[in-house]
Amino acid sequence: MVKAVNALRTKQMAWIILTWLVVEAVDFLGFFSGSLSEKTDFYLYPLYDMMDSELIPELMSADVIKMALLKHMRGRTLNDAFIVRAIRDSTAAEQMKMFLIRLGFGLKVVVTGNVTQVDLPGDAGLGLRAAVDILENIDDIHVAGLASLDVVRYWLASEGVEAYAKYKEPDLRMNRAAWRAFAVVDDGGVNSRMSVL
């Protein structure tokens, strides 16, 4: 987001486009009162968290930050923008392809996601993984992988990511009698630990 805002401020780009896929009850958004922005703003909180909170209202009122649901991008051509495509790999391969063929001229596109966080059943949510496999050898497309050490959160988040990476699917079907509750014990961050109850 910092690069997007800098590109906007230095007039390298005309606007920032934030785009995402709403998985949860996307077809029911029309039933709620308010504008599209009011109905979907909470999906953008992770992107807003990366920006200076005082800058957001200024950019929104100047109408230089555009929000676009993936569902509403069909038929559009996106030009002169910094596009941030945030996904949890809830995107199907066809949706990812549809997004990529919307790209016009004067763009910089950043697609973020985690191929281990799939919200759709089966292979339906593997759009990011498919895009990486298909596009990584094309000039000017760069793929950067991150590891648990790159998690910029509390150290327990990084440890948790590593633990889940080592966990095998059959292990998830453990006997109910073997389940244990755990709690995060925090004594100010110095000696925080997980305790089995």
UniProtKB/TrEMBL annotation:
- Check the record and name the Gene3D superfamilies matching this protein: P-loop containing nucleotide triphosphate hydrolases
Q: Which GO terms describe its cellular component?
A: cytosol
Q: Is Nucleotide-binding there in the keyword field?
A: yes
Ranges that cross the membrane: none
Localization of this protein:
Cytoplasm
Protein name, per record: PhoH-like protein
Q: Which UniProt keywords apply?
A: ATP-binding, Cytoplasm, Nucleotide-binding
Q: Which Pfam families match?
A: PhoH
- The primary site where this protein sits is cytoplasm
* Superkingdom of origin organism: Bacteria
State one molecular function term (GO).
ATP binding
Domain PhoH-like protein spans what residues? 2-164
Q: Which family does it belong to?
A: Belongs to the PhoH family.
Q: Which InterPro entries match?
A: P-loop_NTPase (IPR027417), PhoH (IPR003714), PhoH2-like (IPR051451)
